[in-house]
Amino acid sequence: MNVGVAHSEVNPNTRVMNSRGMWLTYALGVGLLHIVLLSIPFFSVPVAWTLTNVIHNLGMYVFLHAVKGTPFETPDQGKARLLTHWEQLDYGVQFTSSRKFFTISPIILYFLASFYTKYDSTHFILNTASLLTVLIPKLPQLHGVRIFGINKY
């Protein structure tokens, strides 16, 4: 029992992506980002798709793989302060529905961006590099691993 906290979870960060409507809100946010980029007059459709993909992947990298700890006061004695949000997601259990969703969504966005840019080499390289920066940290082999000690503390 958690006395003095407004939630029953030891770490609410672990279940927030499974909450009701979260996936729909996420998809609508990506769609809204794309519509805003399309409404800028000097952006062509390929540039808008590439920017949507790159901005989405940059945001996902920062929020899921770079920022550590929780925004909540948790009674877990600080165990979560050294873990990224991806490592806390679903208590670290691999291949859950929310982890699959957040792994597949950048891949789908990558395919859409590649298709609408007509596989132009510049856009393709940018989109591929952006995709790899969010897919590689999601691998189960890299759970808790800090490459070259980056983001260790």
Automatic annotation (TrEMBL):
Q: Does the keyword section mention Mitochondrion?
A: no
Pfam families xref list: ORMDL
Q: What is the annotated localization of this protein?
A: Membrane
Keywords in alphabetical order, please.
Answer: Membrane, Transmembrane, Transmembrane helix
Q: Which residues cross the membrane?
A: 23-43, 101-117
* Location (main, coarse): membrane
- Alphabetized InterPro entries for the sequence: ORMDL
Offer one example of a GO biological process linked to this entry.
Answer: sphingolipid metabolic process
Provide the function of this protein.
Plays an essential role in the homeostatic regulation of sphingolipid de novo biosynthesis by modulating the activity of the serine palmitoyltransferase (SPT) in response to ceramide levels. When complexed to SPT, the binding of ceramides to its N-terminus stabilizes a conformation that block SPT substrate entry, hence preventing SPT catalytic activity. Through this mechanism, maintains ceramide levels at sufficient concentrations for the production of complex sphingolipids, but which prevents the accumulation of ceramides to levels that trigger apoptosis.
* Homology family: Belongs to the ORM family.
Give the protein's recorded name.
ORML1 protein
Gene of this entry: Ormdl1
